[in-house]
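User: Could you write out the 3D structure of this protein bound to zinc ion? I've included everything you need below.
Assistant: Certainly. Input first, then the structure.
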Amino acid sequence: MFKQENRCDFILQHYREILIDAKKKGYQIITFGSYANLKADKKLILLRHDVDLSPDYAREIAEIEKEEGVRSTFFFRVQGTYNILGSKTKKVLSYLKENQFEIGLHSDAGLFAETQSNLSEMLAFEKKILEFAVGAKILVVSYHLPKKSRFLPDGKTIRQCGFQYDAGEPLFNDGFVFNSDSDAKWKRDLCVCQMLDKNERIYLLAHPVWWAADRSIRETLREEAKNGF
Ligand SMILES: [Zn+2]
Ligand SMILES: [Zn+2]
């Protein structure tokens, strides 16, 4: 067995171990779209990735998941620190699409909208740009820094904009135990590997950056994250 102190590091090797262990314990690891269409009642991990910083980190996570036969939902920003229409991002989006990962919008609309009324305009605009970049309809949305946002769209607004799901809605939260690795710190003060077999349904938000970035730059990024990327 691994030594406890090394075992739960935010490194790609441990990310892979979590997937392997979850599968061994009978969990189905799925995307938001698959869950919404699934009526089965069994052990599940709803797997969400918010691509806050770089598509390169997303690609590294996706490659591991592909090797382990897992699919998840990657939420991309349109107004973030990377260029959603750039050639580097395009390659990652193509890889995800070709390998049946789900792509959603990680919306900054709430941070930038000046009024409630231009919130939906901005959300629809972000959706359209991401759909152009991906070459497919985008059906699910999550929010970047929701606590800092002036406004958040309600269910009616997101459906008017053509989304089917909001990652925060009850469908994906009722009956699930949520854990997230925000700022490389577990929200539940417990690595998700230690929730396996104790919780039947887990909603895991894993930011690719914390697992894939070099340890040496992780601390700098954590500092920057305090002010918002
Ligand atoms: Zn762990
Ligand atoms: Zn975010």
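DSSP finds ten helices and eight strands in the chain.
User: Perfect, thank you.
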